[in-house]
Amino acid sequence: MIQIFTTGGTIDKVYFDANSEFEIGESLVPELLAESNIHKGYSLRGLLRKDSLEMDDADRALVLDAVTASDSNRILITHGTDTMAETAQVLSPLSGKTIVLTGAMQPARMRRSDAVFNIGFAWAALQLLPSGVYIAMNGEVFEAGAVRKNLKAQRFERA
After folding, report:
1. Among the listed residues 22, 35, 37, 92, the one whose alpha carbon sits nearest the alpha carbon of residue 77
2. What is its EC number (predicted)?
């Protein structure tokens, strides 16, 4: 059984007006998985509903505690992209589990979002990778501690 934890981030953002006012809504992960014909084999738990820029050490400790306490050895975490690498680094000392963090550059509710692809890619990566902590974004897998977000290019790259 795959454990999925959601923390918020762009993947679950809901925009209200042209001035980019937003809040983090209910996670669309179950809907995104259903679109990929994945209906079972996972358990979903929402941990946070935050933009990752608002996440602090206490939030990362909450994620670490949830992952540590999970009976599953395969864990998928949806996360905002701005501080995803920091959370992956906090999780990197864990052993015996395969942990994949993913997110989206555009909200899942938008027509041209990378969310569906990233969730599907992370789902597959999670089942194929050995134990460790990884970020799976836009068709690439990066090990925790060896990745950064390139804000200008809007992509992840090796650090």
Report:
1. 92
2. 3.5.1.1
Nearest in space to 145 (alpha carbons), one of 126, 159, 129, 130: 159
- pLDDT range class, residue 17, cuts 50, 70, 90: low
How is domain 2-158 classified at the CATH fold level?
Rossmann fold (3.40.50)
What is the rounded distance in angstroms from the CA atom of residue 159 to the CA atom of residue 146?
5
Gap between the Cα atoms of 36 and 122, Å rounded:
12
Q: Indicate the DSSP class of residue 106.
A: S
Convert the pLDDT of each residue in 31-64 to its tens digit.
999 988 999 999 999 999 999 999 999 999 999 9
- The single residue listed with the structure tokens 């790259």 is 157
Write out 120-158 in H/E/C secondary structure.
HHHHHHHHHCCCEEEEEECCEEEECCCEEEECCCCEEEE
Query: Is the separation of the CB atoms in 44 and 4 below 8 Å?
Result: yes
Q: Hey, what are 79's tokens?
A: 């996360």
Strand (E) or helix (H) holding 30:
helix 29-35
